[in-house]
Amino acid sequence: MVPVPFIILYLKRFASFLARKNKTAARSLDILFVRAKEKAGPLEEFQWLGLMLFVAVPFPGTRAWTGAIIASILDMPFWAAVSANFFGVVLAGLLVNLMVNLSLKYAIITGIILFIKSTFMWSILRNLRKSLSSSS
Asked: Where are the transmembrane segments (predicted)?
């Protein structure tokens, strides 16, 4: 969590500075931003909740640093981005701890249940968002 606020605050400034100085750095940063934008697709709908759940999923590439990059790219407010990253990291730690302390069979069952529950929750949130936007 230590570098997250710095990434959120200074990533775009640092990237533009590097891009002006070095073409190789500009290409590398373009690749990084493209990958982050690809992962940011669903997060644009539910910024805080989406970022928190993205960071909370204990898969490679979905941790706080990537969440901070995505928050910076989406221009999320600073405290919302930091708090979403923080709660996501805490939730991921709790999930990993739960899975480690359970036997392999129960960890697999828990993972399947969490996947089904998160998929169901995303569909409910999308339908809720659509109904709220259509009624406005």
From this structure: 46-66, 78-100, 106-125
Q: Which pLDDT score, from 0 to 100, does residue 46 have?
A: 76
Question: For position 127, what pLDDT does the model report?
Answer: 79
CA angle (51 as vertex; 53, 127 as ends), nearest 5: 70
- Global pTM value: 0.69
| Cα separation values, 132 from 3, 54, 121, 123, Å | 36, 23, 16, 14
CA distances to 17, 67, 69, 73, 107 from 26, in Å: 9, 21, 16, 16, 42
Measured CA to CA, the distance from residue 71 to residue 51 in angstroms comes to 8
Phi, psi of 75 (to 5 degrees): 55, 45
Structure tokens given for 14:
């640092």
Ranges of residues in the chain with a pLDDT under 50 are: none
Considering only CA atoms, which of 94, 81, 88 is closest in space to residue 4? 81
Report, in angstroms and rounded to the nearest whole number, the Rg of the chain calculated over CA atoms.
17
pLDDT at 79: 93
